[in-house]
Structures are given as structure tokens and as C-alpha cells.
Design a protein that fits this description.
By secondary structure, the protein is of the alpha+beta class. It has eight helices and eight strands; from the N terminus they run E-E-E-H-E-E-H-H-H-H-E-E-E-H-H-H. The protein folds into two domains: 1-79, Nucleic acid-binding proteins (OB fold (Dihydrolipoamide Acetyltransferase, E2P), Beta Barrel); 81-241, Up-down Bundle (de novo design (two linked rop proteins)). The protein has helices at residues 42-50, 82-85, 88-104, 112-127, 132-146, 182-192, 206-223, 231-240; strands spanning 2-14, 19-26, 30-37, 56-62, 71-79, 161-163, 168-170, 179-180.
């Protein structure tokens, strides 16, 4: 079956001397793994350049029932994301975004809302001139909503504790479970007010930014254990140090 799709490249893994596996979040098929030829030829090099992480592409997929790997042809970039890789901060953020997505959408079926969210975020990151240091925080909180684990902000009141497992706020924490005390629970409230349009207005010290990210990733790990240890987080900390 041939399917024309728009996709967002998440990562590329060496499969053999002649092939790589490219994992792509698509608008029509969800997450798909493609077998892509590699080599020293001009065509292979051009294709590799088009399949950088967070590249937005259009192509035609050949999907065959019973096969884990699909193939694709007529690949072209549908968005020039060169600004991301021309900026070291944006590059580090892109590494984080692709790693977080890969850990949280394994086996993801078609989800147009999720695809549109990630695509819109890439467009913002590529074009933004300020606020890139907060982008990963805003993206992570927004992704939680698309994955169905957004904290229930309607349960918040000043002085509340945050139940990391239940995703709700309460005036009185239970004896069991993982709870954030009120001073740390306010971080969740702060993130809920951040958008792609206003993220440049939020000011954090290096320590605060690290604490916010650590809190959000701990929350993700409770709901998506596959997140585990993310190598890109250390890169982010070095860039923002």
C-alpha cells in the first residue's frame, strides 16, 4: 500500500552497511520505521541530510502488512529547519525534543492532534529569536496534555500539594505516593501559564531551570517509565551553564 504522508524525523539508527532505520512521526500512520539506503553516493548523502532529527518531510511510503520496516520514495523537505542547527542552543533543545518523543510515543498510532502539536513546536523553535532556553520546558508540559497526563489545574489552590501519581493537587497529602510540597507545586502552575508565544517572558536561573525540568521528567517517568535516563538532559545543562 502506497501512502503519501508528511512526517517529522525523530532519529536514525545504523542497521547495516547498506541501510539505516529512520523513525518518523507521520500525520497519516503514526510512528513508522523506514529502511533507508545509505552510502557514499550523492543521492544517499542528500537523503541523509534531509532526514536530520526534527526534519519535516513529505514522501510516499510503501507499507506492506506483516513487515516491520516500510520503505519510502520521493522524499523532500517541506520545511527548512536550518535555523535550528545553526544555533547551538536550538540544537541542544532539538536533541532533547527528539529523545523525549522517542521515549514517549513508542507504538503510537495515528494521532493528528499530536502530530500538529509537534509540527507547530518545530516551526516555533526554528523561527524564534528569543526564549529558546525555555522552549524545552514549555514543550514538555504541552506534550503531557497530548499524551493524556496533563496535571489537573482545576484542582489547584494556593498552598496545595501536588500528587505526582494522580496528577492532581490537594491541600492535604496522603501518607503514600509521591507528593510535591506547595513551594515546588507552584512550578507546575507556572508551566501551565507558559505558551509558545509568551515563553520568552519567563526568567529562570540555571538552578531553577534545572529544577523545573527535573520535576517534569520525574512526572513523565511515573506515567511513561520508558523515559528513563535521557542523555540530552546533560547536554542541555552544559549549554545553559
Amino acid at each position: 500500500m502506497f501512502v503519501h504522508f508528511q512526517g517529522i524525523v525523530l532519529n536514525t539508527i545504523r542497521y547495516s552497511d547498506r541501510q539505516n532505520i529512520v523513525r518518523v512521526l507521520t500525520d497519516e500512520m503514526g510512528l513508522v520505521s523506514f529502511a533507508v539506503a545509505q552510502g557514499p553516493g550523492r543521492g544517499a548523502r542528500a537523503l541523509a541530510a534531509a532526514l536530520m532529527p526534527l526534519s519535516v518531510i513529505e514522501a510516499v511510503a510503501n507499507v506492506r502488512p506483516g513487515r516491520e520496516l516500510a520503505s519510502m520514495r520521493d522524499v523532500r523537505r517541506s520545511l527548512d529547519t536550518g535555523n535550528i542547527y545553526a544555533n547551538p542552543v536550538k540544537t541542544a533543545v532539538a536533541m532533547y525534543v527528539t529523545e523525549l518523543l522517542w521515549h514517549t510515543i513508542v507504538g503510537q498510532q495515528r494521532d493528528r492532534a499530536l502530530f500538529e502539536y509537534v509540527l507547530s513546536a518545530i516551526e516555533v523553535l526554528n523561527g524564534m529569536e528569543r526564549g529558546a532556553a525555555n522552549f524545552h520546558l514549555c514543550f514538555t508540559f504541552g506534550l503531557a496534555a497530548r499524551l493524556g497526563i496533563r496535571p489537573d489545574m482545576a484542582t489547584y489552590s494556593d498552598g496545595s500539594w501536588f500528587d505526582m501519581e494522580g496528577g492532581v493537587f490537594s491541600r492535604y497529602p496522603a501518607e503514600r505516593g509521591q507528593w510535591l510540597p506547595p513551594e515546588r507545586a507552584r512550578v507546575i502552575v507556572l508551566l501551565s501559564r507558559m505558551t509558545m508565544r509568551n515563553l520568552h517572558l519567563f526568567r529562570f536561573t540555571r538552578e531553577q531551570r534545572n529544577e523545573v525540568l527535573t520535576t517534569m521528567l520525574n512526572y513523565f517517568r511515573l506515567h511513561h517509565p520508558a523515559v528513563g535516563t535521557m542523555r540530552s538532559v546533560e547536554v542541555l545543562r552544559q549549554v545553559f551553564d
